């Protein structure tokens, strides 16, 4: 189920949790929830610091219920299984929604175990620093083959982080 093909596909909620119910299963963080849109190619410095473009920082800020102007926006990096060729950066609202949906699944079921493995066991919380940068640990950069640059690709409530080469290969396959 999702994420296992090596093609860069990842689990997406409508397929993992079923179709949205008319009762509002897919709630947003308010009537005008901000979404990631577009793509950007940025540099990665020797320490793994990446400048998050302002349009993306604003979404992380707006989607972090604890964020205030004097605080740093929080996010979750999901690095997935060994065959994922990218990292996913989730807003706090998005990861909280995922956690709530996982909790509704039968405890001990294979489906729940798989999702917990990905979204809990293969993830870490982090923050955007005061200069608008995110530090990507060396282990995560090595996993997806990041040289000195990366590509952000928007996915609504998350950003995918690709090496330029892997993304070019993925884009050709689309």
Distance between the termini: 19 Å
The parts where pLDDT drops under 50 for at least 5 residues are 1-15, 19-32
Q: What letter string, H or E per element, gives the SSE order?
A: HEEHEEHHEEHEEH
Largest sheet: 6 strands, antiparallel
Helix-strand category: alpha+beta
Count the strands? 8
Q: What labels would you give this structure?
A:
174 residues; alpha+beta; 6-stranded antiparallel beta sheet; two-stranded antiparallel ribbon; 8 strands; 32% helix; disordered N terminus
Give structural notes.
- The protein is of the alpha+beta class and 174 residues long.
- It has six helices and eight strands.
- α3 (92-103) packs antiparallel against α4 (110-121).
- It is globular, with a radius of gyration of 16 Å.
- It starts with 12 loop residues before the first helix and ends with a helix.
Outline the secondary-structure elements.
Blueprint: H1 13-17, E1 39-43, E2 49-51, H2 54-62, E3 74-78, E4 86-91, H3 92-103, H4 110-121, E5 123-127, E6 133-135, H5 138-144, E7 149-154, E8 158-162, H6 164-173
Antiparallel strand pairs: 1-7, 2-6, 3-4, 3-5, 4-8, 7-8
Helix pairs in contact: 3-4
Provide a short characterization of the protein structure.
The chain is α+β, with helices and mostly antiparallel strands and 174 residues long.
């Amino acid at each position: 189920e999702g994420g296992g093909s090596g093609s860069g596909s990842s689990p997406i909620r409508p397929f993992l949790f079923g179709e949205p119910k008319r009762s509002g299963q897919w709630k947003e963080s308010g009537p005008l929830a901000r979404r990631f849109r577009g793509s950007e190619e940025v540099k990665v410095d020797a320490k793994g610091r990446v400048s998050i473009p302002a349009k993306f920082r604003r979404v992380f800020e707006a989607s972090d219920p604890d964020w205030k102007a004097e605080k740093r926006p929080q996010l979750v990096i999901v690095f997935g299984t060994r065959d994922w060729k990218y990292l996913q950066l989730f807003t706090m609202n998005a990861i909280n929604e995922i956690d709530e949906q996982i909790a509704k699944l039968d405890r001990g079921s294979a489906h729940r175990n798989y999702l917990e493995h990905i979204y809990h066991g293969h993830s870490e919380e982090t923050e955007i620093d005061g200069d608008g940068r995110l530090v990507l640990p060396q282990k995560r950069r090595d996993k997806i083959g990041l040289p000195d640059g990366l590509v952000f690709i928007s996915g609504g409530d998350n950003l995918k982080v690709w090496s330029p080469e892997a993304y070019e290969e993925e884009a050709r396959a689309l």
